[in-house]
Amino acid sequence: MTNESHTSSLNTDDSWSRCPVCFEDYSLSHRPTTFVCGHSTCIDHTSGINRLRECPICRYPLNQQHEYNVSYSLEEASCLYRSIKNTAGYSTIEFPSEHIGSSHIKIMNPDDIYARQLQEKFN
Question: Where in this chain does the record put each RING-type domain (predicted)?
């Protein structure tokens, strides 16, 4: 039995941090709201003459009388994700599997990723 640390990569598909209607990143100018079905869009798409009548992802009917609120957690997570992602030279975020659920995060730069791939190839 080895004492190696196993890691699982964070999915780098960042579509969760972007509105599926206008494709803008969630931010203070494009604030997210979350529907009963669990999907999200910019809150601006829930009011006015062009408001959504159904979820753009799953087509769940939206209550036209409901007043939607900003999903502050999603907004903050999206901003934090972009901040980490935009850190110069870093592209992969990994969580050691024994620490999933804790705040332990390892950020790898492309050189480290390439070195790891070479090691795996020759071992």
Answer: 19-59
Determine the pLDDT at residue 111: 67
Give the domains, in start order, of the chain with CATH numbers: 14-86 (3.30.40.10), 88-123 (no CATH)
Alpha-carbon distance values, 108 to 23, 47, 54, 111 (Å): 27, 42, 40, 8
CB of 76 closer than 8 Å to CB of 96:
no
pLDDT by residue (tens digit) across 46-102?
Answer: 988 888 999 999 999 998 888 899 999 999 999 888 888 777 555 555 555 554 454
